[in-house]
Every structure is written in C-alpha cells, then in structure tokens.
C-alpha cells in the first residue's frame, strides 16, 4: 500500500532523555539529546566505522583526480575517470536493489567493503611502484563502480535496521550525511598534504587500510536478517520497484529532482583538479583545501537539518538548498579570486547537502519496508548512476567552451528545474 502522508506528518520527533533539574549534564547526554540515533549501539558502531572508511575514500577521490590530470593534463580524462566509477550504477543499481531486498544487508556490506579495500590496495601498489597508467585507473574505477552499485543501496537500506526505532531514523539519516561530510572536510586536507610530500600512491594505500575499520564494525553489529522477496524473479522485483516509485507521487518527484541535480549539480566537482591548477594556480594541497571548505559547508547543513527538520517545512530546506547552491556556483564560475571562490564553495556544499539530505530523509520515511532496498536502489541510480551523464556533459562542454561556461550552464539548469519541481509539489500540498 502506498504511503500518502505529507512529510510533516511522516516526521517523527525523537524524544530527548529526561534530565532532572540541577543534575549535571555530561557531554554524552548532550550528544544523545542532539543526535538520538547514538542511543543505538549498532548505529554507533556503524557511524565510527564509516567515518574512518569515508576519510579514506576522500583521500582516494582527491588523489585520483589529481593523478589523472597530472598524467593527461586533460579535463576530458578527469571526467572520463569519474564517469567510469559511476557508469555501473546506471545499469546495475536496480539489480543491486533486488540483491539488497533478497539477502541480509550486513553480509552484503561486508562483501562490498572487502572488495573495495582490495581495489584500493591494487591502485595504491601500482602508483607506489610508479607503473600506473590511465587505463588502469579507469578500469579500477569501473570495478569499484560495480561494487558501489550494490553497496550504496545496501548502506541506505540498512539504516532502519540499525536504529530499530523509526523515531530515530531522521537522526540516523542526518548523521549519515554528517559522516560523509565530516570525511569530506578531513579527507581532502590530509590528501593534499600526502600527495605533496609522498605522492598519490600512499593516499590509495591508506584508503585500503581505512576499510578495515568498517569491516570490523560490521562484524560486531547485530541486526536481523531481513529479506522480503526471495520468491520473486529479479526482473519482476525490479518492475515492482519501478511501479511503486511511479505511483508514489512524492517519491517520484524527489527522485526526478535528485536526478537533475546529480547530472547538472554535482558534476562541477569533477573539474576541481582542472580549476585548482588552471584558474587558481594551486597545487595538490590547495585542491585539498578547496574540497575541505566545501565539506565544512556540507557538514554545517547536517547540523541545521538535525536541529530544525521538525520545525521548518521540508520544501524550505529543498528550495533554499537549490537557490544557495545555484547562485554561489554561478559566482564561483565568475571569480578568479581564490578567497571568494573558497567562500562560494562553502555555500555550494551547504546548499547541495541541505537539498539531498532532506530528499533522502523524506524518501526513507515515505517508503514501505518491503520495498526499501529497491526504492533506495532507484534513488542511488538517480544520484550515483546518472553521474556519468553529468561527468561526460561537463567534461565535453568544458573542453569545447571552457570550464567557466560549463559550470554556469549547469547551475542555471539546476536552479530553473528545481524551482519548477518544488513549486509544482507545493501547489499540490505534497512537499
């Protein structure tokens, strides 16, 4: 049966622990009050394991983009490598969702995290030995994309099992964004320093090591083996998921909006190595700082959502995020002042994550548990799977018409389309 409640009705406000008057409030009590998901031991293990692993992931993201550009001096190849990592999601995410609904999510994640670790070590060894070639990097990115086609929907779908009480789910979704963005602050800064002093290979090796933390955490997490569609043929299961999303007006609108932003919004980050070197004349450390500034803005948005999601309408978060992101991305494309660019990147990160965290949150609350894996795989398809189109688009336009024009065009498309979707849904009182 399709959920038709409005987002405000779907929101469940987690109850803070009661503290008697005059009682000393410990820092752990404050954290539990601000982030109720930490009441769950399972979620705490998952949170800290993912945090360490994602710092490593950002080491690799920065180092890989920098290495490809140093080997080729081509914006197109930087975009091609980024596309190779996301193409599998375009074709295989839907099957990934079927797998997530069919097998225990914890076991799936142990497999995917182990596979990602092995790929990181292979790339690191090739880079350290000085024999790495561009085709090898692109091939390993593609293989990682195959893993992520299953890993991403599994990570999204396991959240309700980790917190058990649905009242903690909003906090868990916000904290999941917080994990990614805290890593986005720390990882690029460390990556810039590592690349400058030791080369890209060390960053890849450390990323491989970082996966050990989340693998250990997953072994200690105790979750029920929830499966829902063992008896259904995979193609039938995929059709069920697609029909469910199509007929669920709120989820359908959110996924369309996510798709447009994935293609034309996030794609600017693909060109960051080119922008850092050619426009701002920065080295690897400077590139790391630019990524980190974006991450600070994104991290702030996580706290804003955690604190005010039950007080401010979801449409305000989404519309505000679209507006902030688009305007500051346009300004970013017009400036050659690195300090103004850094300020713009702060607000770009803030706006993007305000939008995407709220979209994720609304979908998690609206979806039926029996469809969660498949719906989150469709969301992953709209988010990660369509990155290749954005990477190819912005890489090609940047090569033909310049980086600045490519970024401005993307920002205008996101702004116009986002306004259309949000106002359409608000007029129907569905957002």
CATH H-level superfamily: MFS general substrate transporter like domains
Helix content: over 70%
Query: Which architecture name does CATH use?
Result: Up-down Bundle
Number of helices: 18
CATH topology-level name: Growth Hormone, Chain: A
How many DSSP E strands? 0
Outline the secondary-structure elements:
Blueprint: H1 7-10, H2 27-34, H3 41-72, H4 75-102, H5 105-128, H6 134-157, H7 159-163, H8 169-198, H9 200-220, H10 234-247, H11 249-264, H12 272-279, H13 284-308, H14 314-334, H15 338-366, H16 372-385, H17 387-401, H18 403-427
What does this structure look like?
By secondary structure, the chain is mostly helical. Helix content is 80%, strand content 0%. It has helices spanning 7-10, 27-34, 41-72, 75-102, 105-128, 134-157, 159-163, 169-198, 200-220, 234-247, 249-264, 272-279, 284-308, 314-334, 338-366, 372-385, 387-401, 403-427. The chain has one domain (36-427): Growth Hormone, Chain: A (Up-down Bundle), CATH 1.20.1250.
Q: Quick summary of this structure?
A:
This protein is an all-alpha fold. The chain is built from 18 helices and no strands.
What are the salient characteristics of this protein?
disordered N terminus, globular, 80% helix, mainly alpha, 431 residues, Growth Hormone, Chain: A
């Amino acid at each position: 049966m399709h959920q038709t409640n409005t987002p405000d009705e779907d929101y469940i406000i987690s109850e803070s622990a009661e503290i008697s008057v005059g009682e000393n409030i410990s820092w752990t009590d404050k954290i539990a009050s601000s982030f109720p998901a930490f009441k769950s031991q399972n979620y705490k293990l998952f949170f800290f394991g993912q945090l360490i692993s994602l710092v490593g992931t950002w080491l690799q993201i920065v180092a890989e983009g920098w290495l490809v550009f140093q080997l080729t001096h081509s914006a197109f190849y930087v975009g091609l490598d980024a596309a190779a990592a996301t193409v599998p999601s375009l074709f295989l995410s839907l099957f990934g969702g079927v797998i997530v609904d069919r097998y225990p999510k914890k076991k799936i994640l142990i497999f995917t995290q182990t596979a990602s670790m092995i790929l990181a070590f292979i790339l690191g060894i090739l880079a350290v030995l000085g024999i790495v070639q561009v085709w090898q990097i692109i091939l390993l990115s593609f293989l990682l994309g195959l893993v992520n086609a299953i890993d991403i929907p599994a990570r999204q779908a396991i959240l309700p099992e980790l917190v058990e009480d649905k009242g903690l789910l909003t906090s868990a979704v916000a904290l999941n964004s917080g994990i990614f963005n805290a890593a986005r602050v720390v990882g690029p800064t460390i990556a810039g320093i590592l690349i400058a002093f030791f080369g890209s290979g060390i960053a890849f090796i450390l990323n491989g090591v970082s996966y050990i933390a989340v693998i250990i955490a997953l072994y200690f997490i105790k979750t029920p083996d929830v499966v829902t569609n063992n008896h259904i043929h995979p193609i039938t299961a995929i059709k069920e998921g697609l029909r469910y999303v199509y007929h669920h007006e709120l989820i359908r609108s959110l996924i369309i909006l996510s798709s447009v932003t994935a293609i034309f919004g996030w794609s600017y980050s693909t060109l960051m190595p080119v922008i850092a070197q050619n426009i701002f004349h920065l080295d690897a450390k400077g590139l790391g700082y630019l990524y980190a500034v974006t991450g600070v803005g994104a991290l702030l948005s996580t706290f804003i959502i955690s604190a005010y999601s039950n007080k401010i309408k979801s449409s305000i978060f989404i519309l505000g995020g679209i507006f902030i992101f688009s305007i500051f991305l346009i300004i970013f494309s017009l400036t050659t002042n690195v300090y103004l660019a850094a300020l713009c990147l702060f607000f770009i990160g803030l706006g993007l994550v305000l939008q995407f965290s709220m979209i994720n949150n609304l979908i998690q609350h609206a979806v039926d548990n029996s469809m969660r894996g498949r719906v989150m795989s469709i969301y992953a398809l709209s988010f990660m799977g369509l990155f290749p189109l954005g990477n190819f688009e912005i890489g090609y336009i940047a090569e033909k018409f310049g980086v600045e024009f490519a970024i401005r065009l993307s920002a205008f498309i996101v702004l116009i389309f986002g306004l259309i979707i949000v106002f359409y849904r608000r007029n129907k009182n569905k957002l």
